[in-house]
Amino acid sequence: MIYVVIAAYLIIAFVGCRPLFKKKWWAEFAAYLTLLTIGFSLLTMQALGIRVPSIGQGIQILMMDVLHIGYH
Amino acid sequence: MFHYFKKIVQHLKAESLNQRREDPFAERPEFVLSSDIDQNLTKFREIFGASNDIIIREIVFGQDPQVRGIIMFVDGLVDKKTINLSIIKPLMYDLRLIRSLGNDKVPMEQIKTALLSVGEIKQTPLINKLVDDCLSGETFFIVDGLAEGFMISTRAWENRGVQEPQTESVVRGPREGFCETLRINTSLLRRKIKNPNFIMENVEIGKRTKTSICIAYLKDIADPVLIDEIKVRLGRINTDSILESGYIEQFIEDAPYSIFPTVANSEKPDVIAAKILEGRAAILVDGTPFVLSVPMVFVESFQTAEDYYIRHTLASLTRIMRYFSYLITTLTPALYIAILTFHQEIIPISLMFTLAASEEQLPLPVFFELLTMMITFDILREAGLRLPRLVGQAISIVGALVMGEAAVAAGIVSDFTVIVIAITAVSSFVVAPQEGSATMLRYIYFLLAGFMGGIGITVGVIGTLIHLASLRSFGTPYLSPLAPFAPCDQKDVFIRAPWWSMGTRPRYMGVRDLRRQGHRLRPHKPQEEHLS
Amino acid sequence: MKKAAAVLLCAVIALVAAGCWSSGELNEFAFVVGVAVDQGSAPENILLTVQVAKPSGFKSSINGGGSDEEAYWNISNEGETLFNTVRGFTHESGRKLDFQHNTILIYSRDIAKKGLGDCMDLFIRDHEFRTSTWIAIANERAADVFGVDAGLETLPAVEIDKMMDAQQYNSQSYTIELLDFLKRLKSDTTAPIAPIISIRGEGDDQDIHISGTAVFHKDRFIGELGGMETRGLMWVTGNVKSGIIVVNCPCDQGKAELEIFQAKSTVTPVLKDGDLSFLIEIKEKGNLGSQTCRENLAPTKKLEALSERQNKAIKTEIEAALKKAQELNADIFGFGEAVYRKYPKQWKSMKDQWSEIFPTLDVEIKVQSEVYGTGNITKPVN
Amino acid sequence: MKLEKDMISNSQMAFLLGIYIQGAIFCTALVFHITSRSISLISLTSLAVFLTFVFVYIKLMRLFPGHNLMGLNDIVFGAYIGKAVSGLYIFFLVVLTVANLRLLCDYVVGNYMVETPTIAIAIVFLFVVVWAVYAGLEVMARIGMLFFVIVSVFTGVIFLLSLSQIEITNFLPQFDISLIDFVRTNHIITTIFFGESFMFMMFIPCMKQQNRLGRSLLFGLIAGEISLILSSLMITGVLGDMASISNSPLNRVLRQVDLGQVLSRMEFIVTGILTFSVFMRIAVMYYAATIGLGQLLGLKSYKPLVIPIAAVVLGLVVPIFYTPSAQIACGISTWPFFSSFFTFVLPVVTLLVALLRGFFKKREEECG
Fold it and tell me: Which chain B positions have a beta carbon within 8 Å of C16's beta carbon?
């Protein structure tokens, strides 16, 4: 499974970046690469089984325990 | 991996080279006729070479100064009778009647105006023009001592008569179809629309084939932007041969990679005339009976000529059935697979067990079984088309019946699969213009349903609708009366409103004059007259 | 061209990624049409009997040949809890059980007495079960019900399903779907009810008989209603669609049978300064079906007399049902809900004492029936 | 300043809003866990509450014609805080897309494709959403109109089919829920059904006639709301109290509704049709997120951002909630506050700050 994720990452990165590289749009190029790496790092963490921090749980804890807002 | 990079480097090098390589289709050098006739003769013999269907006839005419002249034409493309009677005969016999010629030179102007009894004569010194026209059926006549040649139009060749087209047979409506000669096709259209605003502009495309293409439109209705766009796109074609309107279609269409056609074609003059009257432009190509009409919308392929000739109630019903049959032909195999492999709870109990019973001893899983049947059906259809008429009929009937029965009897295929294939086969012929897209869609949905069941079909349908909505045909959105919703255009989409209520032309083409009919044309009984 | 290739590649990845996880061929499943739950050998065990359709049985019946071998197959398995007994069936049959086509759920009487709670939860939670299946209580062992030959249908379970539908024609038993049963189970006061299936005759000419209704308190089986009491219950809940009422002729020399066409019932709680009473109004339209006495019942005076007797007959049925319910102290009519709907605030206080209030509740019954037709003939022939 | 070039007509925007609201049909599961009787009435009151916020949005848009939400923040809050606020909006949009995608995947996996992992279904839906977003706003508006008609027709048909099974008794004790429950359900419906359409402020500058904004938005809201009310009526009518304990009441109703033997089990086709509206909802949210991010980073076009954000969304789909019931629990207790901060509090604060700055500037000009 992990190989599929890495292969997909390489393919999409290569195919996506080449036109941006040629058109010299550096801002888009940088944004494209960073976001892609964030997304795929999350995927690889899941593929490897590492426990990814869950936003839903984070919101729940933030609102319930820290700010004490929320219906019980 | 290394090979891949090598290819990229070569590609980059080729790109930089491209600018310097000269364009292979640059115009040929221009030659001009010389006044000495022998020199011209050797020039033409050299140009035309050894082809024996080009006839060069030397004649001598005139009384006191014997003048030599040459007549050249392509045997088979010209009408021999007119050449003999109205060119050679007057030159040889009647010239003596014009005695009053005084000066020594040959009175070319007088010959042209008074003697040659032919319809159309053109003069030109350019050899290339002469050669091109000669090859398209004109005869040209040059005279010793004059640096200009005459082009006399004597086109006449064997062509197929105006017959009923095979592809669009009709129960009610005109039976004439276009034929291969452009002039006959334009005359057929001209007979339908006798209106001075009906313009037919000619364009010549194809370096080597010199096919003449005619853009026909109504000046006061069609959108000028559309016409310019067509001319621009036709101008961009830089190829050496145009043999069928299909070439043109693929060069000028909007979405080359899409499975949906964005340029409509038809073989019937009344269909093309109706489209021109709606504000579209037609493109006639010499040498093919299929005439293109742009812009095309998705809904147009569900309208047939007959819908407008029979009464509107039956026409609306058949049109709705066409929409259903398009859905059936694209979706039934996918739904069958999705229900059988993913969502078995859909099947009612009584049907469930007969289905399970028939699926029981089959070797192949349902997916491959249906796939093989679909492929055999397509092969049968292609075989039926390609073979000569008599054998073709037999093949498709024999194939369908025998193979279906034998497969079921042999226990390879369940009888439900044969039913599903039969339904899809029959309904795929109903919407003829979209048959290509229907087959492609059927396979796409089938694969999606095989892998993901119901969700695959939903995703497939959404994807197709996105693709359709993003398509444009010559500036008109492809789903236009439906997607950018135009309420008053709905009268000709799912149902065909009665004629007396179809007051305006479709709006989605930016037509200049919208009104098509007067108001309140509903037929009513006489005594109602003085009531209203 | 590059972009198209990239898009195609993503499409293929998306397709393969989805893969065919939950796909299954038809011949990988054993389709269950009926589930029966019995008391296992050990007291806490459950015996689960499942009727599976055998496709080969159908094949021969299609192309005409009489099928000697049955088109169904009853397998049973025993275990403590429900779900692992269901999964335990793999020891019996090679194919995975598929409950999507289950039509009937039968509990035996002794399991019902012990309480349905623990062996009901699976049928609500699992995605394969549908809440539109029938639920019924078997008089003796539920497994035997599936053994009876199927009469007109090919599968006994489908035969029962058709019989459940047909009950509406004589309104003798209150057929209920799982969803209604759960709704009654969930509400605090209303008592769940379910039809009773019994087997009559022995040897090979046994047949299935559906009549009477089982009454539950929460999820324990506490009592049973006969045919007449069930009809009384159905009058109140408005489920009577058609049926036959037998009354004596006005001249008392024979019987007249009246066919019910339409029946409407309104139940209104009346709360006057603290004490609660109920008013049940029944409007019924019927037709004179047949008569054994020689009298000419066509004139309207006679028809009114007949409808008068019909009112009395309906009233007795409802009173019988009411008496039985109050005996069992099970609010099968949903009176508690009616009070809650009309007087939500007062209901809060009355809710806990409802088991005391209900047995001594006085209910006024008003029946207004109408016989408006005598069929094709006016007077009897002889 | 907006990144979006193609303009769409008012009626197309109204239908887009209509299909967007209809997309909340799977979120009805949240609401039925608290009370199941008076949902349809409460959704009317919450629509009224939301209308006040619609005026806030329109007033905001009127103050700065030609700017969408992100462009607005830079002007109102100055450069740095503006960027921060826009960043917050985009974070919320991405979380919203992930939550809705997760809801859709759980519905599909829970009821139809049980052994399929959620990420597989997410990839498939995300592929089509990316395709739609790549096609642009005008294409989405066009399909939105088509889908709106299809989904409304199907919701109507299903409602008619279920009329025979609806019992009036399930509705009757209308107002016996406690005040807290009433406020709570109102809050949930206002934020989740309607509040999440705050990102239409991103598209308001793309409408052709700017003067008749209110009318088309109102029409869209009401059109979407009608089919939501129909489906909640259907759920309450058929299921009664059972609605509050089932994870997806809509699917249980679709299984219960039948017409004779043939049409009895069509719920997989109806779900397919209803997924159209949820797809449109996710596509619009995703589109708003990409446009916002593109504008925040000052890019020339939003198209290169589409695929990376898809990767991020895909990365977040599985871990956002551990189980479907965790999502419902969070949806009931804390999600309304979390999302109402972004949909109501922030726009109101922006409006106040804008008005104040406007007021001070006018005073400076007078006396300055």
Answer: 451
